[in-house]
């Protein structure tokens, strides 16, 4: 990844100082400047239509997350894990990938399904877990997935998706398929054995994958500084012989540029790349968490100034592609889209009881068929599944 310059050093430094000497796994690849202009020496020249699309997707996700948290507080959905403050990383990644690529996510990347073409109403039905849900409501809440868009369900046990991602990439290599696999993790996942197994295997077998670490500074209540004594997470790739870099994960142009190059390397048979995306979880870990118990509002306020949506908005205004009126109109349109999608699926009944037995066996064994028949002879299920999952 030597072509990606490393503009700054130190844990959270974001100035443009001392550009060239710092190795990419200690530096910070960044494109968007604070005033909305771009650094011409690092600009990946993302096509204008894609930059506009990125803004639309990031803004929609910001609104969608806020709406889903509201629904959870009203008892209409069971649980939700938001991506607020981290939108640039999954969206910039999704826009850099191709149709036959695969995504093995953690908790905060499900928007990639939408960017890859999964319909919003079906996505929201997965959050309700009702009969509009193609997964038949069996997954853990906030574990959306979509076979049509090569987006695999998160396993929930931290880090387990990483050996799966690397294994899928190895399979693609053996089968001479063209797809690249992207595996995501949080900073906390780098302390799991699965991370080390996966990245070691990826390096040894030079599999076509990109491993993305969203360093959002917290693993629930454990700060990144208690997660590792390494100066960066990216540097961990050195031990495994995997080219690694640290990028500004709140800069969608940087994410797009870095992932495009890493995916191209993988496609060219040059093996894996490990990318640490420096970002921040603005909201709670999930609707079951109260972050005021373990971090200060000052810290959150500091990161709000580096908010990825605001930074991209400044860039679009700087380029003359957006103004207040257009931005407000877009917000109205996106809110209406979300409200309509919720209205379309919320009143659907729960999945039919017999679906519980689908998709498990090719040919249903007799004892399972017996249990299904007994269930169907029993009393009717309540008309609505209620709020709790
Ligand atoms: C193996 C395992 N240990 C603990 C947990 C409980 N847990 C759920 S999320 C989480 C923190 C994850 O932090 P990180 O990997 O940084 O991702 P983030 O949630 O910040 O995106 C933990 C410890 C779990 N799900 N699995």
Write the layout of secondary structure elements.
Layout: H1 48-73, H2 88-96, E1 102-104, H3 111-115, H4 120-128, H5 161-174, E2 181-186, H6 193-204, E3 209-215, E4 218-219, E5 222-223, H7 224-227, E6 244-248, H8 252-267, E7 273-278, H9 297-304, H10 308-318, H11 324-346, H12 366-377
Parallel strand pairs: 1-2, 2-3, 3-7, 6-7
Antiparallel strand pairs: 4-5
Helix pairs in contact: 1-2, 1-10, 1-11, 2-8, 4-11, 5-6
The protein binds thiamine diphosphate.
Would you summarize the structure shown here?
With 389 residues, this protein is of the alpha/beta class. The chain has helices at residues 48-73, 88-96, 111-115, 120-128, 161-174, 193-204, 224-227, 252-267, 297-304, 308-318, 324-346, 366-377, and strands at residues 102-104, 181-186, 209-215, 218-219, 222-223, 244-248, 273-278.
């Amino acid at each position: 990844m030597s072509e990606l310059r490393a503009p700054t050093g130190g844990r959270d430094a974001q100035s443009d100082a001392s550009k060239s000497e710092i190795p990419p796994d200690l530096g910070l690849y960044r494109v968007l400047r604070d005033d909305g202009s771009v650094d011409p020496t690092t600009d990946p020249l993302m096509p204008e239509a894609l930059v506009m699309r990125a803004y639309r997707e990031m803004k929609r996700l910001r609104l969608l997350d806020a709406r889903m948290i509201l629904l959870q507080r009203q008892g209409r959905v069971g649980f939700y894990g938001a991506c607020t403050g981290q939108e640039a990383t999954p969206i910039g990644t999704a826009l850099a990938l191709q149709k036959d690529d695969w995504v093995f996510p953690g908790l905060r990347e499900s928007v990639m399904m939408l960017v890859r073409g999964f319909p919003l109403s079906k996505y929201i039905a997965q959050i309700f877990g009702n009969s509009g849900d193609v997964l038949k409501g069996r997954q853990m809440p906030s574990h959306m997935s979509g076979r049509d868009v090569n987006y695999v369900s998160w396993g929930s046990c931290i880090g387990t998706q990483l050996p799966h991602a690397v294994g899928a990439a190895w399979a693609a290599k053996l089968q001479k398929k063209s797809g690249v696999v992207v595996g995501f993790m949080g900073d906390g996942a780098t302390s799991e054995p699965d991370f080390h197994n996966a990245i070691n295997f990826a390096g040894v077998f030079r599999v076509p994958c990109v491993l993305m670490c969203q360093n959002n500074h917290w693993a629930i209540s454990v700060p990144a500084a208690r997660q590792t004594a390494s100066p960066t997470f990216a540097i961990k790739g050195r031990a495994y012989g995997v080219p690694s870099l640290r990028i500004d994960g709140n800069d969608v142009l940087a994410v797009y540029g870095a992932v495009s190059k890493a995916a191209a390397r993988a496609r060219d048979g040059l093996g894996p790349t490990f990318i640490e995306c420096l970002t921040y979880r603005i909201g709670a870990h999930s609707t079951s968490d109260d972050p005021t118990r373990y971090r200060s509002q000052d810290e959150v306020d500091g990161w709000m100034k580096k908010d990825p949506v605001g930074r991209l908005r400044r860039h679009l205004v700087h380029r003359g592609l957006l103004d207040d009126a257009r931005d407000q109109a877009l917000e109205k349109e996106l809110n209406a889209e979300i409200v309509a999608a919720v209205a379309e699926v919320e009143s659907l009944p729960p999945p039919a009881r017999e679906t519980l037995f689908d998709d498990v066996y090719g040919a249903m064994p007799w004892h399972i068929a017996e249990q299904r028949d007994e269930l169907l002879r029993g009393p009717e299920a309540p008309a609505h599944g209620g709020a709790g999952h």
